[in-house]
Design goal:
It is a single chain. By secondary structure, the protein is mainly beta. Among the domains are: about 175-265, Trypsin-like serine proteases (Thrombin, subunit H); about 280-379, Pdz3 Domain. About 10% of the residues lie in helices and about 35% in strands. The strands form four sheets. It has a six-stranded antiparallel β-barrel with strand order 10-11-12-15-14-13. This is Periplasmic serine endoprotease.
Length: about 375
Amino acid sequence: MMKPNWKILTVAALLFVGIPMLSIVGSGRSLQAGNAYALSTDINPVGTNRITEVVKWNDQAVVGVHSTMKVAQMRGSSPHKPFGQTPFGPGAPMPQPAPQGSGSGFIIDAEGHVLTNNHVVDGADKVQVQLHDGKEYEAELIGQDAVTDIALLKIVRKDGHTSPLPHMKLGDSATLDVGEWVVAIGNPFGLQHTVTTGIVSAKGRNLGAGPYDAFIQTDASINPGNSGGPLLNMNGDVVGINTMILSGNGGNVGIGFAIPINMAKSIVSDLMKDGKVTRGWLGVTIQKMTLELASSFGLNEPQGVLVNGVLPKGPAERGGLLRGDVIVQYNGQELADFADLPKLVAKTRPGETVTLNILRNGKPATVQITIEKMQERQA
C-alpha cells in the first residue's frame, strides 16, 4: 500500500499561522433524567430535523480546551537567571509568550472527564476547558496515550460544585457503515461550536501513523481546531474522535479522519486508573501474507499472518511459536487482516493465556501462549 505523504497530512489541532497553538474545544451531549431530546424515527436525515436534534442533544457537552505550553526562554537571558532579575533596556532579556492554542474535546461523564487528542495537550503546562456557556475551568491531565493519540482530562471545579455536567453517550464504532451520515462538532479556526455534516467515506484506514491505525474516513468538514472533537452518528452517539485531515493547504478538502470510539473505550479505564495504557506483548515480528508467500507455504490463498521472527525469551518463544508459523486465529478470532493481530494482542491483559491456531509446515496446529506486559522499549 502506498504510504500517505506526511507533508500534507495535517493534524487538525494546529492552527493560527505564526502563533504556536495547542488547544481543545469539543461538543458534548448530556442526557440527564427526564430531559432527553426526542429524536426523529427516520435514521436518514434528509428531509427531517434529525441533524438539528442530534446537535441540540449534544452541543452542551462539547468543550473548548485551551492549552499553554512552557514559556520560551527569554531572548538574550542567562538560563540561570529567573524572570525579573535583570532590568529591561536595550539588549535586556524579554519574556517570550507561551505557545498557546485551541482544539476540541467532549465530556463523557457527569463528573467532567473529557476525551480529546493527545497531540492537543501533549507537553502543555496548563490546560483550560471552556464549557458551552462560556465558563472556563482548569483541567487536569488524567492520562495520555501517544500510540493512539488519545488523552483524558478532568475538569477541576471548586469545592461544592458537584452538579452533574452535560455529557455524551459513547456509541459503537464497529456498527458504522460506509455511507452512513455523521456529524462533527468542534472549534475549527477558533470558531466555537461549529457543526458540519457528511458521511462515512471509509473504515479501517491504515495511514502508517501507528500499529493500531484503523481510522474512520469522513467527508464531514474537519479543519484545524477540530482535533479532539466528537464524530456523531444519527442516534446522537459518539462514534469517533476527529483527529487529522489530508490536505495540501491545511484546510478541509473532504478527507478527514477520526479515531474509532471503540478504541478510546478500550483504554479509558487504564487512563483513569494508571494515567497510561497497559498493553499485551506477544514477542514476534510479523509479515503480511501475499499470494506468492501463500503459494510457497502450500496455501491456495493468502490467510493469516506470517511469523518471520520470534524474540528471544519472549512469550511467543516460551509458548513454542516458531519462525515460519502462520497464525490464522487468535483466541478463536479469524485474522482477516494483517493489522488485526497487533490490535488483538494489545487488548489482551498481561498474564492471560491465549490459544493461537497456526499452520506449521502446512499442517494445522495450536499453541498456548501467556501474554506479557509490553514495555516501552518493546512498543
